[in-house]
User: What shape does this take?
Amino acid sequence: MADEKTKTPLLDELESGPWPSFIKEIKQAGEHSPVCGDLLGQLEQSYEEKRGHWKHGGIVGVLGYGGGVIGRYSDLPEKYPHVAHFHTVRVNRAPATRVVVALVATGGHRAATA
Assistant: This one.
């Protein structure tokens, strides 16, 4: 399981650019939720191995709206139990506005918003 001391050198590089970093936001949210530590640990491992560790669990959408929920399941549930079952919630706002993607782990913990 990942913890607060998990080293993430590849992800840390994403914080150094001139643009907003989703890594920084996840780390800030991690001060209140262990889900974020596991998320960062699995993401770092994916970058190291150049392999995604999510299994796709299907899509629940709203016809004509564009929003929905995408179920994702870790193929490393023993190592990262807080993200063993993870869902991406996609919400479209009114036309001509940006799409908000919220990462939500089962159990109702808010992981991050990008």
In short: Residues 9-113 form one domain. The helical segments are 9-13, 22-29, 34-49.
